[in-house]
Structures are given as structure tokens and as C-alpha cells.
Amino acid sequence: MRKACKLRRYVQLRTDRQGTSGEGTVVYYKRFLHCCPVDTPRLIDLEATACKLAISGHGTLIIVSVYLASSKELLRSDLESLLALGEHVILFGDFNSKNAEWNCVSTNTNARILADLRDTLEFDVIAPLTPTLFPDKDRNRPDILDIALMRNVNLKLGCRDAAASFLRSLPSLHEIRAYL
Q: Which of 13-22, 36-45, 112-121 has the lowest mean pLDDT?
């Protein structure tokens, strides 16, 4: 991964994209957390890095950073494979899935696929209220590409708001690229 950031007191797990120089997916977690890497299954279009977080008295949470190139189609089999990593799973990142339902400017094909799979595969879509993509061309409007899918992660309403707020607070790679 080109110019991967090193953050003090954080551990970095990363999966470099095959066949290209640089790029891929990454997860950072605080050193004191009981976290360990998880082997990700073979995926067709999604790229992913996963870790397992042990939470005292609450079991294990699988956290997966994902990326879907805008030229790729969101495949049910990829989502099923990642959601099968554990009972409690959070997938987050750039799904290149825009849906007006989660505050995007428009709805694209991948978002329609995701919306159709939501009930069947039993996950929730959590989206920030503000854009995570700020195009460098004036004719394009800011939009949301970074979302989270949560399966069997029961958060109180205030926590859901906090999760969406947390997503908003993370610097999107779309924003970071401008500084590299």
C-alpha cells in the first residue's frame, strides 16, 4: 500500500491489491484492544482486510475494511463470504454504492443490489449524514461512498447515531488522497 500511514499506539493490518503497485485495504486498531487478524475468504470483486475483536462479556466482533472499485459489480457471493466470518460483523468502507436512501445524490446499480440484499442477508446499512467524497472537479457534487454494513450488531439508537457520527469523523481516503 503506497504511503501507508503509521499511527502511534495503533496496529495496522493491511491487504495489498494484487497485480498493482500500492493500494488495497487497511484496518487500524488501538494496541490495547484484544484484536487479531482474520484470514479473508477468496473474493471476486471486493477487496478486504479483517480482524477479530474480543469484547469481554460480549463475544467476538468481526470488523472488515472493504473496497469495491467503481468498475466492479457488487456480488452477493462476496458479501455472503464476508458476513459468514462471524456471528457479529461490521463491514465498512467504499462500496461505490450510492443510494438516495442513505443520503447520496443519486442511486446506482450497486446500491440497488445492496438494498435488495439487505433483508435477505440480514444486515443494516449505516451511512454518514455528510459526504465522504469531495470531487476535484467543480461539475461533480460531494457525495457519500463510505458506509458500514452491520449484521447482528445491536446498538441502541444513540449508539447508531454515534456510529454514523464516527463514520463522518473518519478521514475518507477520498479526502486523504488530496494531501498525499
A: 13-22
Give CA–CA dist 39/54, Å, rounded: 16
Instruction: Name 144's Cβ contacts closer than 8 Å, sequence gap at least 6.
Output: 98, 102, 103, 104, 127, 128, 130, 131, 132, 133
**Backbone phi, then psi, for 57, in 5-degree steps?**
75, 0
Q: What confidence tier does 171 reach under pLDDT thresholds 50, 70, 90?
A: low
Helices 76-83 and 109-121 meet at what angle, rounded to 10? 40
Do the Cβ atoms of 110 and 67 come closer than 8 Å? no
For the chain, the structural domain boundaries read 10-179
What cell numbers appear for 87 in the block?
456471528
In the beta sheet, which residues pair with residue 1? none
Domain 10-179 coded CATH 2.40.160.40 = no
pTM: 0.80
Place of cell 468481526: 62
130 pLDDT above the threshold of 80: yes
